[in-house]
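Chain A, query sequence.
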Amino acid sequence: MEGQIKTGNTNVLDFLRKYGTVFGALVIFIIFSFASKNFFTTNNLLMLLRQMSMLTIISLGFTFVMGAGGFDMSIGNAAGLINIVFAISLIKTNNFWIALFVSILCGLAIGMVNGTLVAYVGLPDFIATFAVGSIVYGIKMLITKGNPIFFPEDIPAISLFIGQGYVGPIPFPVILMFIFVALAIFTLNKTTLGRRVYAIGGNPVASLYAGINVKKYRLITFLISSFSVAVAAVVLTSRLGSAQPLAGEEFLLDAIAVVFLSTTMFGDGEPTGAGTFVGAFIISMLNNGLTMLNVAYYFQYITKGLVVILAVVISVILGRKMNLKI
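Chain A, predicted structure.
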């Protein structure tokens, strides 16, 4: 009987550990729906999904890096530089596809530098990517002198469609976001790449002895992250209709919050594609809901920080209880 009771308690704790953060997101959603009459409306929900699309795409790439036990501090500044590169390339060539190619190439170059410094040179992730981010910040300010770059009026229509367009009633960035979510979930759960990413994140030494090329796969995760940043930066530039020197910097802290939230649900302390999507929804919902309630922006930062801390603390506590089961 005692064993059955403990098993029942274990099942409850396991359920809360996996889905407690999702339940918390539902509670926040309900609170905002009652607190603001305009929150739970079709227009606002579509706007919320469009707002979270770029953060989700970036966070999904970051999920691969953290899944392999890494970290990337260059995300925000990389998005800002690619934002500028896309605008300049578009103005110079008046060709969306060339500008897109150059932007993705720029992103991959940043990812290659990050991955090489971390995986092959052996620098700590935090130090290497922070330094690269600092260099990238200096480059984008050198190019723009702090001034925005505006699109001319005769640019190709697709250049604005990718960030501002609709497919029926659905914003195109939302469709793009769900494509990335599906690809990330499939890759992490169903492919050799995903299994090896998690293996390296769990125990890189054991992965090395198992014959996994740890350096190569860590480099790949940084390339995936930088590719995601490049796509999101292009969407951001298209949405703004201009390149802003400081655009994209807010993605860093939000992406970190999103992926840490991802580790508190669906898995055993590992970031997942589905968890990242829910985490992005939580952070974006807080931004959206608090803005609609006219909460000062600095309280929004405080609230987001508290939510992340609470989620991680609950996950750790429940995880310890699970480990103490008999």
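Residues 1-5, 320-326 have pLDDT under 50 and may be disordered. Residues 33 and 214 are 46 Å apart (CA to CA).
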